[in-house]
Each structure stands twice: as C-alpha cells, then as structure tokens.
Design goal:
With 459 residues, the protein is α/β, with parallel strands linked by helices. The chain has 3 domains: 2-75, no CATH class; 84-96 and 357-457, Alpha-Beta Complex (Aspartate Aminotransferase, domain 1), CATH 3.90.1150; 102-350, Aspartate Aminotransferase, domain 2 (3-Layer(aba) Sandwich). 41% of the residues lie in helices and 17% in strands. It has helices at residues 2-5, 10-16, 28-48, 57-75, 102-112, 131-142, 153-165, 186-192, 208-214, 241-250, 279-284, 310-318, 321-324, 329-340, 345-348, 352-357, 361-375, 414-422, 446-457, and strands at 84-85, 120-121, 126-127, 146-150, 169-173, 179-181, 184-185, 196-200, 219-225, 255-261, 289-293, 304-308, 380-388, 400-408, 428-429, 431-433, 436-439. The strands form 5 sheets. A 7-stranded mixed sheet has the order 4-12-11-10-9-5-8, sandwiched between helices. A 4-stranded antiparallel sheet has the order 13-14-17-16. β9, α10 and β10 form a beta-alpha-beta unit. The longest helix is centred in the N-terminal third of the chain and has 21 residues, at 28-48. The protein is globular. The protein starts with a helix and ends with a helix. Its EC number is 2.9.1.1. It holds the Pfam family SelA. Keywords: Cytoplasm, Protein biosynthesis, Pyridoxal phosphate, Selenium, Transferase.
Length: 459
C-alpha cells in the first residue's frame, strides 16, 4: 500500500519532537516504545481503511506525536499513581485501602531519607532488633504483654499456625472459614501452614461442646476467626473467644488464638457505627494471641500485627518465618506514627480512615452542594441521599448515610465519562449506576476536590 510508505520511522518521530526525556521523568526507552505502539496503531488503521485524515507524511507524523504526548500525560513515569476515590468506599482495596495520616507520611519521609536505628540499640551501641521499634507502642495501646509485626494479616495467621501448630490440630468453627478476597481462603492458608485443620459445628451454628469434643492430644490451638466481611443472621449460634478460655482451664497446654481480621482501636460503636470488636477487650479477656491488619480500621500501612502473651510471641520472634515475613523501616515508621495517634481519641479522629468513616452527614451534604454548584455549568447534576461502605472486607453490614451527586454529560454516556475521568493525569474513580456517574464526597478531601473538578473540566 502506497500510504504505508509515507509512515515516519521511529527515529524520525523522535527527532521531530523535543521530548526532553519526558517532562515527567519518563525514560527515553519508554517514549520510544510508545512511538512504536502509535505507529503500529496508525499502520493498522491504514490497512483496514479506518484512517480518514489524509495520506500525508506530515499528518502521519503529527498523529503519532499526538498519541505519544497523550500517553505521556495519562501515564507519566510511574505506574502506581495517585487517584481520587470518589466512590465513597473508605477502605477500597483496589485503590490501596487506608490513606496514611499526615504524621505517618512525615515519619515515613524522615525514615526513607535517613539512616535509622532499625536494628541498632542506641542505648547499648550494639545490634538491636527491629521488633523493638514497634513492640512497646503496640503493648501500650492494646495492653498486651508482647507483640510483633509481619507483612499482612494473612501472613500473621500463617506464621502463628506454622510456628505453633505444625502437624498439630487447629480447631475452628466451620462457619468461620472465610474467603478473604482474591479467592484466598483462611482454610487454604491454614492448610499451607502445615497445621491440621479440624472443622467443628455447622455453617450457621457452632456450640462450645463442638470444640470440647474435638480436643485430643494432637490439638494445639483453639482458633476464632472474626467474620468481618459477611454476616449470617437468623438461626445462628457462635462461640465467643472468652468461652474458649473456659476450655483452656481444662487444657492449659492449648493456645486460644483469635484472628480479628480488620482490628479496631477506635470505639466506633460509641458513634453508632457497627459492632466491631475492640482489640483492647480481646487482650483484656486473656486471649493468648490475636492478630489483625494494619491497613484496615487501624488506618496505617499494610501489616499484620500479632499481639498477646510473651511466651508465644517470643517463640514467634525466634522462628525462621520472622525473617521471611518481616517488614521494612517504612512500614514500621508509618505504623508507629499511626499508633501514636491512638493515645488520644481526638488525635485518632484525624486518621483519614477514622475521619472518613465518622464524617457527619451534614458535612458531606454541604460538600456535595459545593461540588454540584461548580460542575453544573457543564454537567447535569442532582443530589440525593445514599449510603457509603466501609469496604476492605470490614463492617459488611454497616451502611454510612451520605449524599450522592449524580452526574451526566450531554455528549458522553456514563461509562464513557467514567473512562475519560480515569484517563486524566490524576485519575478520578467514580461509580456508574443508572446511566449516571455517581460522586460520593465522603472520600474526597479538600485536595482531592480540586483534582476532581480539574478532571471534569479537562474532558
């Protein structure tokens, strides 16, 4: 085809434009790859007859260059990038779950840009343990004897079972063998650990005598799993972890371990939000071990926190998995700063996850009106009452009252508008429902609001 001979070479495109290595620090090799991709797209459109702009080398050169510049604008140098979460889902797993507090961000920046005493005792002038960085903080906040941190809560479960119950039985209610997302199941993690899973009871009803009758000389752990990502109602019966402690009195060699999953150090129930068990109460009840996530209701970085009796925590620290699953200085810095906020409830309220969950309905309404007023010069907007979700497999039965802005554009369908918003330099993630794009301001702070408006007016 004659027109194919008019296509510019990669070198010609690169020479024609002053890419400056990409103003956003994009490597030259990436820009070259994008040029090749745009040329391939143009070549295909010429071959199938869909290109209608005229067959001129200058025009082809401009088309390829424009496509590359669009990629530069949308993609930037990084794949991981900031997005505006306008869905109202506070702990949106796909969007990175918890946003860190300003104090946590500052502490991470300091740790990242400096040498630290990660494994160095300033008091002794000798090698120290990274467990010491965070252990006292966790103990002070939860009331536990000892604690350690691994890279997520699934790792915490795996480590507890592998280190303390390998080739031994772990008794757990059949109704608590949850799937935690991404097709990963607690039962599968337990089996991978080398522990022998012993299910008792039924999906909806488990009694204390089910646990008692399953105990034998091969039993190591009585396990309780908090079912935070679903709720069974109706004809149900569950055994509380405190009840399992009564069995321990008859079998003192057993470990009573509760996987709290989300974990909570904030009294949400006092704000009329859910019935999430508080970590402090589980520790005060006398459980041997508990584990919970750092990046869910705690509002910190991804981490799995194991807390409880010194006897068991010390064994875990000495296990080979402690090195395999350990966290780095940035995680410890973020977690330390986050936990410090829990010494005062007022400070804890400033942790973004806490702040967004307990936001007043009226405050959200005022913000929704403000956004609507700015958008309606171009878009058709309506505000209605709705509800937000906590997300992250947490507080599944809880709905948070909010105000939703329904947005439509005269030229774009809702899916098309959503796609264009995702293609902005700061992508905006909305919910598409009933032929509208829905904005829930609950998860849109002041800086996000400016980026959201910029995205809508840049289409």
């Amino acid at each position: 085809m004659e027109e194919l001979r008019l296509l510019p070479s990669v070198h010609a495109v690169l020479q024609q434009n002053d890419w400056e290595g990409g103003e956003k620090g994009i490597p030259a090799s990436v820009i070259k790859k994008w040029v090749q991709e745009e040329l391939d797209v143009l070549r295909l459109s010429l071959m199938n007859g869909s290109y209608k702009e005229g067959w001129e080398r200058k025009r082809f050169l401009a088309a390829v260059s424009a496509g590359v510049r669009k990629k530069m604008e949308i993609n930037g140098a990084y794949t991981l990038k900031k997005v505006v979460n306008a869905t109202g889902v506070v702990l949106h797993t796909n969007l990175g779950r918890a946003r860190l507090s300003s104090a946590a961000v500052a502490h991470v920046l300091e740790a990242a840009s400096s040498y630290t005493n990660l494994e160095y005792s300033l008091e002794q002038g000798t090698r120290g343990s990274r467990h010491d960085i965070i252990e006292n903080q966790i103990c002070d906040i939860t009331g536990c004897e000892a604690a350690m941190v691994v890279n997520n809560n699934a790792a915490a479960v795996y480590m507890v079972l592998s280190a303390l119950a390998k080739q031994k039985k772990v008794i757990v209610s059949r109704g608590e063998l949850v799937e935690i997302g991404g097709s990963f199941r607690i039962s599968s993690i337990m089996e991978e650990s080398g522990a022998i899973l012993k299910e008792v009871g039924t999906t909806n009803r488990t009694h204390l005598h089910d646990y008692a009758s399953a105990i034998d000389e091969e039993t190591a752990i009585l396990m309780k799993v908090h079912t935070s990502n679903f709720k069974i109602t109706g004809f149900t019966k569950t055994v509380f972890s405190q009840e399992l402690l009564a069995l321990k009195e008859q079998h003192p060699e057993l470990i009573v371990y509760e996987d709290l999953g989300s974990g909570s150090l904030f009294p949400f129930a006092r704000y009329g939000i859910g019935e999430e068990p508080e970590i402090k109460r589980s520790i005060a009840a006398g459980l041997d071990l508990i584990s919970f996530s750092g990046d869910k209701l705690i509002g910190g970085p991804q981490a799995g926190i194991i807390a409880g009796k010194s006897k068991w925590i010390n064994q875990l620290k000495k296990h080979q998995l402690a090195r395999v699953l350990r966290v780095d200085k940035l995680t410890l810095a973020a977690l330390e700063a986050t936990l410090l906020s829990y010494h005062q409830e007022e400070a804890a309220r400033e942790i973004p996850v806490i702040r967004d969950i307990i936001r007043a309905e009226e405050e959200i309404r005022v913000q929704a009106e403000r956004i609507k007023e700015k958008l309606e010069s171009v878009y058709e907007c309506h505000i209605r009452k709705g509800h937000s979700m906590v997300g992250g497999g947490t507080m599944a039965a809880v709905v948070l009252p909010t105000y939703i802005i329904e947005v439509t554009h005269p030229a774009f369908s809702a899916p098309e508008l959503s796609r264009r918003l995702r293609e902005q330099s700061v992508p905006v993630i909305v919910t598409v429902k009933n032929d509208c794009c829905h904005i829930d301001p609950r998860t849109v702070d002041e800086a996000d609001e400016a980026a959201l408006l910029s995205a809508f007016f840049s289409l």
